[in-house]
Amino acid sequence: MTNPAIAANGLRKSYGDKTVLDGVDLAVPEGTIFSLLGPNGAGKTTAVKILSTLVSPDPASGPIQVGGHDLATDPQSVRAAIGVTGQFSAVDGLITGEENMLLMADLHHLSQRERLRATAELLERFDLTEAARKPAATYSGGMKRRLDIAMTLVGNPRIIFLDEPTTGLDPRSRHNMWRIIRELVSDGVTVFLTTQYLEEADELADRIAVLHDGRIAAQGTAEELKRLVPGGHVRLRFTDPAAYQNAASALSEASRDDESLALQIPSDGSQRELRSILDWLDSAGVEADELTVHTPDLDDVFFALTGGTGIPHQPEEAVR
Asked: Which of 118, 224, 233, 246 has its CA 20 to 30 A from that of 10?
């Protein structure tokens, strides 16, 4: 991979006797969504804090580059290239949404004309224009999150760290946030996303790394990770008992369900295996009335890689 947006080698961080990150290697291509997935307390936030220059890595860490800049020797250039939205909103509830945006523009030393233009454009982009002059304390959870990301974009960063950006949001607000994240990437922005929602990583990420006990347990696309876990199968269902019996006799490795006239064939769900099954049905002159492919999901992957410890659940009450 050439010119990764983020490249970390042997990332380490300990606090006293507690090792949080134990030799983590990460490589994030430009213009993609990379998701760091792991149980609560796995070190996801620590990784974000290090990569965004908020916390120093241990001296034993290898080289780390963000936006083409060396984290150790040129942290100021790293800061200029990134934006960070943490788990907890940076929005000041005592001032208006517009004032929050203008304050951020001042921190970026924008000219008067630029600060007004950036504020107006971003408030409109995030559907906050009508609420712009209301105190941010009156905003819903989803609106505060949108304002948080809008503030992050004031400096036009090419790399954005989103640390659990949808925690506590209701399903509608979460889906709106997903749309915003996709739009950012379509504009060429690189997104480093930590999340405790498996569905979120599956839905958004180009690549996923599972962090467990301070190490990367596995990484790849969602589909690649799902293939690491056994349990995938193809299910054939028949309405003709004779066709079912013929297929069951020929497919000795299939599990039978005589009551529903269904066969379950172990499969990794790949196109190659599916084609093989279809070719066999054609050559045998057997016609199944229904064919469904079942592959493990990220829940299965998470349990397999982390032992099921600390798997997060959707909050019972979401902020609206």
From this structure: 224
